[in-house]
Amino acid sequence: MEYVKLGNSGIEVSRLCFGSLTFSQTAMSIDAGAAVLAEAIAAGVNFTDTAQMYKTYGYIRRAMEMSGKYDLVISSKTYAYNRELAVEAVEEARRELDRDYIDIFMLHEQESEHTLRGHAEALDYLYECKAKGIIKAVGLSTHHVAAVKAATAKGLDVVHPIINVDGLGIADGTREEMEEAIKAAHDAGLGVFSMKAFGGGNLFRRAEECLEYILKLDCVDSIAIGMQASEEVQANVAAVEKGALAADAAAKIRARSRRLLVEDWCEGCGNCVKRCGQKAMRVENGKAVCNAEKCVLCGYCSQVCPQWCLKIV
Ligand code: SF4
Ligand code: SF4
């Protein structure tokens, strides 16, 4: 496994970062999820991504116990916008992870310099924690080009942007515009670790192409990928080490049983219903519902969801 400096943060991470959201999305047991993360750690992954909202601290804590790797690099994030909520978020992470410090703490899903300004109190608190050594690096996660630019202008330590071969999920621009913003962030010394290389699972049928694209992006230090099974860990580790995903590993990824997940924050706009040629979607009680018997997991509906609610897990 290759290890890289995460910008000027002083943190060294594996090129592959373990995205832990899939644990809670797929309701895995703590031990089952932790075993997958422990397997990735044994294969050289030293970096995991979580969030206050993901409810996966328990999995990570158990994986550290299983593997004995208590210095795992952990990145978390919060929607906190004021000091009180930010204190709660940092203390919750320290308590549930049983760690004095959290390596990276970020503001979750920032959109622009304006939302960043609206979260100034929380950001100030994260910097206060950094000064005390409770946090090593401060950053933001985002689906917006404008927020990557704001992170760079503000001189944050780390940025965690969405980027994938189709530019799927980028809220305010094209793939090329996001690449340009990420490159500028990287050149300015921010650590960059990307999210959603497979477009929230929607591009899983093109796994080789997805990995080939993201592995060639020099401005991305580390690539966060959600994993929930041993074969995914082995395939992704090998792909990062060899620079390409092997055909047999890609076939195993494609063969795994999946479903369309509608996130809780669906607003029932009906765009997905209109887009679905299989007539698999309906809106019921203000939320989208998928008929799994009709759904062919094409991922087309996720392209028209303004809320980025539809994932294939
Ligand atoms: S497009 Fe998205 S927000 Fe609209 S109904 Fe479908 S899942 Fe919900
Ligand atoms: S993944 Fe494809 S088939 Fe399934 S609900 Fe979305 S558009 Fe319809």
Describe the structure in your own words.
The structure is a single chain. The protein has 313 residues and is of the alpha/beta class. The protein has two domains: 3-255, NADP-dependent oxidoreductase domain (TIM Barrel); 260-312, Alpha-Beta Plaits, CATH 3.30.70.20. The protein is 39% helix and 20% strand. It is built from twelve helices and 14 strands. It has helices at 21-25, 30-42, 57-67, 83-97, 113-118, 120-132, 145-154, 175-187, 207-216, 230-242, 247-255, 271-275; strands at 3-5, 12-14, 16-19, 47-49, 73-78, 102-110, 135-142, 158-161, 191-194, 222-226, 260-262, 281-284, 287-290, 310-312. Strands 3-4-5-6-7-8-9-10 form an eight-stranded parallel β-barrel, surrounded by six helices. It has a two-stranded antiparallel ribbon with strand order 1-2. It has a two-stranded antiparallel sheet with strand order 11-14. Helix 7 links the parallel strand 7 (135-142) and strand 8. The longest helix has 15 residues, at 83-97. It is globular, with a radius of gyration of 19 Å. Bound molecules: iron/sulfur cluster (2 copies). One iron/sulfur cluster (SF4) is lined by residues 260, 275-276, 278, 280-281, 290, 295-301.
